[in-house]
Amino acid sequence: MAALAEWERILTSEPHPTVLQLLVEDSERGQRLRQSSPFVGILPRGERDAIFALFETL
Questions:
Q1: CA 43, 21, 6 angle in degrees (round to 5)?
Q2: Domain spans, the chain
Q3: In whole angstroms, what is the distance from residue 23 CA to residue 17 CA?
Q4: Are 11 and 38 in contact (CB under 8 A)?
Q5: Is the dihedral of CA 32, 37, 40, 45 positive or negative?
Q6: Would you say 11 and 19 are in contact if contact means Cβ atoms under 8 Å apart?
Q7: Which of 4, 27, 40, 43 could be 47's S-S partner, Cβ–Cβ 3.0 to 4.6 Å?
Q8: How far apart are alpha carbons 2 and 24 in whole angstroms?
Q9: What's the whole-model pTM score?
Q10: Tens digit of pLDDT for each residue in 12-48?
């Protein structure tokens, strides 16, 4: 699981702003990391839906 090892390195060595940037980065790396995100399931479905709804209005 190379992607999880990469996420572990990122989460333990990068500052929070860098991690946040990776989560929204429009690049091959950003897309690849999002596809193997360790954050899946961290939010309850209702919270996740509310966040998506908020960003749809922007």
A1: 80
A2: 2-56
A3: 10
A4: yes
A5: negative
A6: yes
A7: 43
A8: 20
A9: 0.62
A10: 999 999 998 988 999 999 888 888 877 778 889 899 8
Confirm if 56 and 26 have CB atoms less than 8 A apart: no
Q: How many residues does the chain have?
A: 58
Residue with tokens 């961290």: 42
Are the C-beta atoms of residues 4 and 36 closer than 8 Å to each other? yes
Continuous H helices in 1-58: 2-13, 16-24, 28-35, 45-56
Question: Which has the closest alpha carbon to 33: 53, 11, 49, 56?
Answer: 11
